[in-house]
């Protein structure tokens, strides 16, 4: 049985049946003969080669990834290969577990130059709704909070609400009103993301 499943009972979903048939495989299963099928990677474990090995053996044209980009799922080697050989065409934010920032991304294989639509937004975008830039930092307390600069961090009023949902009060009251006490330069507050803008997606 897969992790979280004991004698057919899933800790997360109980006995709820899947809405469609999904053929299961592990990283040691060859996918060379499954080119007519899409590869679904759902929360691939972090820091190990499972997602990378599965992607290497896949010869099809569509990859669906559910997880946290540059975060708690997969690893940098997998993400680099995915961005090099596939283009992200769709991103759908989905509810996450705890403080993670989860999304469904759909990728199409790059068969030749110009075969995929050009990207229009970064995979990890700045949380400030007035900014369209790629994020460079991710908050360690609430991982959905990502910013490109200290200016956007201070201007994003929604950060207080997000932190409050996690029962955190990281604000102080100054002469200009309520402001966050989070600091991008504090490694306890934020983790540095990889080079922003290298991996792009089309926002949905």
Automatic annotation (TrEMBL):
Source superkingdom: Eukaryota
Family annotation (PANTHER family): C3H1-TYPE DOMAIN-CONTAINING PROTEIN-RELATED (PTHR39290), S-ADENOSYL-L-METHIONINE-DEPENDENT METHYLTRANSFERASES SUPERFAMILY PROTEIN (PTHR39290:SF6)
Protein's UniProt name: Uncharacterized protein
Source organism of this protein record: Octactis speculum
């Amino acid at each position: 049985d897969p992790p979280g499943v004991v004698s057919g009972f899933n800790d997360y979903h109980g006995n709820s049946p899947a809405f469609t048939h999904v053929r299961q495989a592990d990283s040691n299963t060859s996918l060379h003969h499954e080119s007519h099928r899409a590869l679904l990677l759902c929360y691939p474990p972090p820091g190990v080669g499972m997602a990378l090995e599965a992607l290497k053996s896949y010869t099809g044209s569509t990859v669906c990834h559910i997880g946290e980009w540059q975060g708690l799922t997969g690893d940098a080697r997998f993400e680099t290969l995915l961005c090099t050989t596939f283009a992200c065409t769709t991103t759908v934010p989905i509810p996450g577990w705890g403080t993670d920032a989860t999304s469904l991304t759909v990728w199409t294989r790059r068969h030749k130059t110009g075969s995929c639509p050009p990207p229009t937004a970064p995979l990890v975008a700045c949380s400030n709704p007035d900014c369209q830039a790629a994020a460079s930092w991710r908050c360690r307390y609430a991982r959905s909070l990502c910013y490109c600069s200290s200016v956007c961090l201070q201007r994003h009023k929604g950060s207080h609400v997000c932190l409050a949902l996690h029962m955190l009060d990281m604000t102080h009251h100054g002469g200009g009103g309520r402001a966050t006490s989070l600091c991008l330069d504090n490694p306890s507050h934020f983790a540095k993301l990889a080079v922003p803008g290298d991996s792009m997606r089309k926002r949905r």
